[in-house]
Amino acid sequence: MILQRFYDEPLAQASFLIGCAETGEALVVDPNRRVEQYVAMAEQAGLRITGVTESHIHADFVSGARELAAVTGATLHLSDEGGADWRYGYAAAAGAVLLREGSIISVGRIRIDVLHTPGHTPEHLSFLVTDTAAADGPVGIVTGDFVFAGDVGRPDLLEKAVGIANAATAAARVLYRSLQRFRALPEHLQVWPGHGAGSACGKGLSAMPQTTVGYELRYNWAFAARDEAEFVAQVLAGQPEPPRYFKEMKRINREGPAVIGGFRRPARMPESKLPALLSEGAVVVDLRGAAAFAAGHVPGTVNIPLNRSFTTWAGWLLPYDQAFYLVADERDEVAIDLAARDLTMIGLERIGGFFGPEVLDAWESREGGLEAAPQATLADTPAPNGAGTIIDVRNAAEWAEGHLPGARHIPLGELLDRIAEVPREGPVVLHCQGGGRSAIALSLLQARGFGNVRNLGPGFTGWRAAGLPVVRD
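^ thats the sequence. predicted structure below, dont judge the formating
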């Protein structure tokens, strides 16, 4: 048996190629849109991709299953569990083989038994892998978003992200029952999960690329719960807010993602086009780091730095229903290629074009020039009940652990929806844990005409380190 793990850092997402060296067949599980990586690996190993499957209808990225099947001619294998609302709308047209509990996928001499493991989502499947050429029992299980290293798939996404009322508690109970099946598996089995640390599909994922059933039974918090009620309470507590784009991903992946034929660099735009776009209210994203943006940027542009968190905040803040534009200080255009790839991975394909570093040079010579993003220090932060407002843009769990006295809590992902709560009369000081998210928040407010706003660079970490007061609700 040949097993290859692929890992996408921005998505914290894992996919797997399982191949039979004897027959040259291979199956890919949970592919993303970077389908060329699977094709290249298969060719290198002397394999041909004959099957493509996925554990569930993903919420955090656009599935590459349909694209990979189109490129390779492989057969799609898709879940038929979960009821009518959770069936793939494109399965029949794609000639997909439908999978249920007890189905078997054969990859040469590799036997893959399909287990229905609902809870994270109703249609979720796991794949028990046996190399029949070497053993009469399974070697491991591909768990998708069912069991992670150190955590389990969150059951609240249907309620929080998709908007199905009162779904979280019921899904948590279903997940608890699915976990009892996991308990019964042989402890030596390898566990190959679909996400690692940094994913919003759980609240405490380990960075370990794989684990074992026995290790998780001993050290995963979910298996320490004494009964169903305790598990339900624990699994629903402290879950991070799901990014806004998760709902869009569910729709795209259920209906069937477009076959895009690879990533494409957006068109380069002349500098002269930018003033008109900004005056029309177009969203223009500066990809540079927060420090470079703060030193000087085109007024009206928004800063989402091209770093590991780029995909998350782009999915929270950028529109799916209109074109948007990019700015990068990269003369070799590497940043544009990376940004276009990461955006396409979550379905943000309406990139109208990009502006290179010449737009910054040209704007600097204009009347008014580039705009700065002012920083606040610990000394000039507004005092509680005094003039000015402090806005904490961290998530709910961070806020609950402690916050600045008198601060208002508006998480970054909700800022645009709650912008009416931000006073136009300053000063307004924004902060997060270390200054990164609040820098994005500052750019959003500046782009919408807020003048007297500042970013508390040291953030909550600097505030606490300085011994300043912290309160808890």
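The first strand starts at residue 2 and ends at 8.
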